[in-house]
Amino acid sequence: MSENAFAQESRPTVAWLWQVVTGVGLVVLLGLHMVANHFIAKGGLRDYAAVVAYLRNPIILQLEILFLICVTTHALLGVRAIFLDFGLSDQFEQMLTRVLKWIGVVTVAYGLVVMWFVIR
Fold this sequence. Notes:
By secondary structure, this protein is mainly alpha-helical. It is built from four helices and no strands.
């Protein structure tokens, strides 16, 4: 029996690398988010007016948008990895990847629209 008898033929991807990058990004951004929103804020939480003022800072807004993108990307890559463990056909894998990309785009777009309405 050959050494690759149990190996499934699949195309190599860099999805795992993106998951690692977004995972590291999440650790950093979540740390900053927790410190800024729960340790620096008086009383441990911000009210709506304080959140709006906080998000109007361009640097904070960019960090929160990056946080949204990292969370969405990391989560959807995790869902994709779970489905790929089932040994999907190439055609289904491609369809799954397209669907998850669109879910990610819609999720990030929705988050950006919400942020826009909050800070305007």
